Amino acid sequence: MHVQSSGRHPGAPRVTLLTEGTYPHSHGGVSVWCDQLVTGMPDIGFDVIAVTGTGREQIVWDLPGHVLGVRSVPMWGDAPPGRPPRGRARRQLADAYERFLTALLDPGAEDGFPPALYALARAAADGLLSPFLRDDTALTVLTDVWRRPGRAVREAAPTLHDALTATGLLEHALRPLAAPPPEHGVAHAVSGGVAVLPGLVALERHGVPLLLTEHGVYLRERYLGYRTAPYRWPVKAVILGFFRLLAEESYRRAALITPGNRYNRLWEEQGGADPASIRTVYNGVDPAAFPPAGPEPETPTLSWAGRVDPIKDLETLIRSFALVRDRLPAARLRLFGGTPRGGEAYRERCEALAAELGHADAVTFEGRVEDIKDAYAAGTVVMLSSISEGFPFTLIEAMSCGRATVSTDVGGVREAVGDTGLVVPPRDPEAMAGAALRLLGDPARRRAMGEAARLRVIEQFTLRQTIDTFRGIYHDLAAARQRPPARILLPAAAATGTGSLAG
């Protein structure tokens, strides 16, 4: 699906947002962030290359006129158009794919990943890559690489089913390479992973500077997700090797990396990013849009807001609530937020857990709420139970509303909260319940924490600060691309004839 608008902004930077599973086709924290960025900069023209599921997803955000185009790149819909390579092209692509796979599985061959990736990108642009990866030749190449002497995965005795699974996963993951990359302006990837692929191609092919913003750590979340994925080790070795080397290439090539918190920065530096290329930019909210929430509910209530997803670890939250209710039988747990397509089984599991623990009557899944402020006002204490976060919007929004919070110590949570809320270890129902009970039992402390939390947002995490920072970054990156190469002046003793050399 391609949506085109006619608005143009001569003289301003052109920015292409690169997204995956978020803006403008779904709701959630990253989508909110993108919408804030776009609507806050009417002076800048935006395009969006959105990696989606099937390609049939509807746009759910009202797009302003300066969003000039949206291109959907489906990972799981129909295969991209193209034809299988023949003759010399087939042999060349097989060689590039062999170097690509070897880099994923052999630590001594990792330097071969970038040139192999860009060779695959050229094949994708010609419509050859996806058909090749659906052909028996790709299976043969992977099987040969797996079975080489000294290869660790060889000991796991990879099967034909493993080869089919790994090749299929790679074919889907590499589909964004076929998307026409931006040729001008700035490419801004709003997450790591496959969303970055068109940006890397744009940089390689057209010199378009790449800006990378990680809200959560994409690679860490892939590690977490694949721990319980139903694949054998040879498959995981290929896929996680791809995501790891893609992260390293993204960190190495990005003109600037703007993590949403200092925790992400540690991962990025570990992944090979130059510390000088990293600049932390916190998420922000408009305090006027999230005013003090007003009176607390009459019944002691824990509220939560977000998407219903395993990474939010609602099971720990439900288990902690069961402990709270043992002490406060009147307590309630209200969960606000939608369930993404494909996440229905997780929600059913959470509902079954509440029933199993004997608290189905007190745990309610409220679904999406028209005004998210209502979700925070509904709680005496606002909870966050995630096992991975960046710099969560729900947390700073609740803080702006003046509610006391209990949050898990992941990502940038501690940076956001400071001493204005309670922070507990992830996956620890007892610690979470204890913190919630302390706040539920101390109205004066809740009130003081809520007031301090709102003041902290006003002082440090406003939307205006975030937008102004990124506007400046866009202008700087666009100007740097247009700037002619600098001339390096030599010392007089070293000068010969002209006294300078072009650099």
Word description of this protein:
With 503 residues, the protein is α/β, with parallel strands linked by helices. It folds into 3 domains: 2-78 and 179-277, 3-Layer(aba) Sandwich (Rossmann fold); 87-172, no CATH class; 301-460, 3-Layer(aba) Sandwich (Rossmann fold), CATH 3.40.50. It has 18 helices and 15 strands. It is globular and about 75 Å long. InterPro entries: DUF3492, PelF-like. Pfam families: DUF3492 (PF11997), Glyco_trans_1_4 (PF13692). This is D-inositol 3-phosphate glycosyltransferase. Residues 14-275 form the DUF3492 domain.
In short:
It contains 18 helices and 15 strands.
Could you outline the blueprint of secondary structure elements for this entry?
Blueprint: E1 2-4, E2 14-20, H1 29-39, E3 45-52, E4 67-74, H2 87-105, H3 113-125, H4 129-133, H5 136-146, H6 160-173, E5 186-189, H7 197-206, E6 210-212, H8 218-227, H9 233-253, E7 256-257, H10 262-270, E8 301-305, H11 314-327, E9 332-336, H12 344-356, E10 363-367, H13 373-377, E11 381-384, H14 393-400, E12 405-408, H15 413-417, E13 422-424, H16 429-440, H17 443-460, H18 463-482, E14 487-489, E15 500-502
Parallel strand pairs: 2-3, 2-5, 3-4, 5-6, 6-7, 8-9, 8-11, 9-10, 11-12, 12-13
Antiparallel strand pairs: 1-4, 14-15
Pfam families: DUF3492, Glyco_trans_1_4
Protein name: D-inositol 3-phosphate glycosyltransferase
Domain DUF3492: 14-275
